[in-house]
Amino acid sequence: MSYCRQEGKDRIIFVTKEDHEAPSNAELIADDPNDPYEEQGLILPNGEINWNCPCLGGMASGPCGTQFKEAFSCFHYSKEEVKGSECIDNFRNMQECMQRYPELYPQEGDTESSPQEESNTTAAPASDSDSTPAVSTSESAPSSDSVSPTDSQTAS
After folding, report:
1. Are strands 3-7 and 10-14 parallel, antiparallel or unpaired?
2. Is the CB of residue 90 less than 8 Å from the CB of residue 71?
3. Is the alpha carbon torsion for 73, 76, 78, 81 positive or negative?
4. Phi and psi (nearest 5°) for 10?
5. Is 7 helix (H, G, I), strand (E, B) or coil?
6. Helix locations, the chain, DSSP H
7. Is the full-model pTM beyond 0.70?
8. Contact between residue 38 and residue 46 where contact means Cβ atoms under 8 Å apart
9. Residue (of 36, 35, 92, 100) closest to 62 by Cα position
10. Cα gap 14→19, rounded to integer Å
11. CB under 8 Å to 48, separation ≥6 — which residues?
12. pLDDT digits (tens, 9 = 90+) for 76-111
């Protein structure tokens, strides 16, 4: 037996196997043409910020949403000669928050290893024996025939 129940803002619908087997009789509701947030972009006609704009990529929500809103609002409504110059502290707070959540807000160079890490992983182990010949890096480097073309070479 299927039924519905309301939990706060959520409506939970339990359905039976038979309900899923029958074709749906759901009716779609047309979008409200008077919805002020629908298809308006970042700035609403009244000059306010549309925090629901998909162009923000979810930055207005999440653990640093408040800091983002404060910084962006400060910049948007700034009347200073250098727009947003009074907002530095707001942007610093937002950046500090984002650094606490690197998995949600990765920094530009986070996915690449540093040159020091690369040199540590490619260095040959030291040998105590003088009888073992060292392999030069040029012998293990790929030949020019085996190097794959770059993007600029393949784009024609």
Report:
1. antiparallel
2. yes
3. positive
4. -95, 140
5. strand
6. 17-21, 65-76, 88-99, 115-122, 137-140, 151-154
7. no
8. no
9. 100
10. 10
11. none
12. 999 999 999 999 999 999 999 999 999 988 887 655
